[in-house]
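Page header: ASSEMBLY MODEL / two components / 456 residues total.
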Amino acid sequence: MQHDHVLSTKQFSRGEIEALLDRAAEIDADPGAVADRHAGTLLGLLFFEPSTRTKMSFEAAIKRLGGNVVDMGPVGASSVEKGETLADTVRVVEGYADALVLRHPSEGAARMASEFVSVPVVNAGDGAGQHPTQTLLDLYTIRERVGLTDITIGIMGDLKYGRTVHSLAEALTRFDVSQHFISPESLSLPANVRYDLHESGARVREHTDLEPVLPELDVLYVTRIQRERFPDENEYRAVAGEFGIGRKTLSVADDDLAIMHPLPRVDEVAPQIDSTSHAQYFEQAHNGVPVRMALLDTLLS
Amino acid sequence: MSQDDHQLRVSKIRDGTVIDHVTAGHALTVLAILGIDGSGEETVSVAMNVPSGETGHKDIVKVEGRELSQDEVDVLSLIAPAATINIVREYEVVEKSRVDRPTAVVGVLSCPNANCISAAREPIESRFSVLADGVRCAYCETILREDLADHIDVG
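Prediction written out in full:
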């Protein structure tokens, strides 16, 4: 992998993605083999927005490679509160760490940070932009469950602001995958993502209703619809109900349908699904560690 | 409308650059993009909404004592794609060219996405790549297709 930074899934070729997923599978099978591989390496964690999974799995990943973290901690307790620019913060922290993992509420934050530092920057989510490491673990999960050849995937929920959706949709164009996007009209794909999908020649269709397309799907990737995207509570409840998954919804689905979700979920996937063979989301979250180990190992080697 | 009529409206210049066929109404934006605000020593003449056979109406900008480079003027192609650039020496046009679309535009447009890092208080200039039918923010990837002149930000 010839990249200094990990900013967007668009930077990866199919071959690079497959090599990373292969490496993640190797690590997953025998994590002990890499236990000291990055001893002494410090990963700088800069999370300007709350995170559980992404932050903890990066921390677990570097520690399982023998390294450690230096963590900026919550924004409220940092110099950001004093008005420091992100450009200054990352230039300071690069002196403390061998690579930086950045989550920030502004789109393009990781790209800008990468222009100011000489250590690798990993985008751990930039506003409504991209979330490339989530996509790598999503692809790993899809590959393990149904493969990445000749499959049909539905991506449903907040497609407009959902950064996991943007990164995943663009990465899937590298593979033999048909993509169906299901959302309320007000939360459909943003123009820039639609432009990239069109340019790539991907097989893509957009819908406002899940039911007609559900029987065709091998994978249904559900994302959370956020309350703050709607002017009032009633409208939110109506939409959230319509784009949620329960046992009844799945009556027309293929028996082997895999349901994925980047988590956290609120009401999108009913707890009754958890015990069915459709549920793939907890396994998906667990895959975050070996995939991030593979990514960090490649980036830091 | 003959060339001579134009000369009556705005007199010939001895040395400098004449930007002709600017989209009507955009002459002041052209000056803003070029960073010409009257504080320099150049003599600047502007004619706006001049009747023109080719485009109906056009603007003309004349900048005396300064020959604009191709890089400087290419950014004008975003708002004035039909503009022509005439370099004048001793009252004669010695070089005539059209504007070409540049591959990138730096520090000229502001990103329409208020949540873009380039819109935050950071020490960076805006940067856009130029697409066939618009421009795209290098930071947040927002695509801007229409009303580019409304997003020109040249302090």
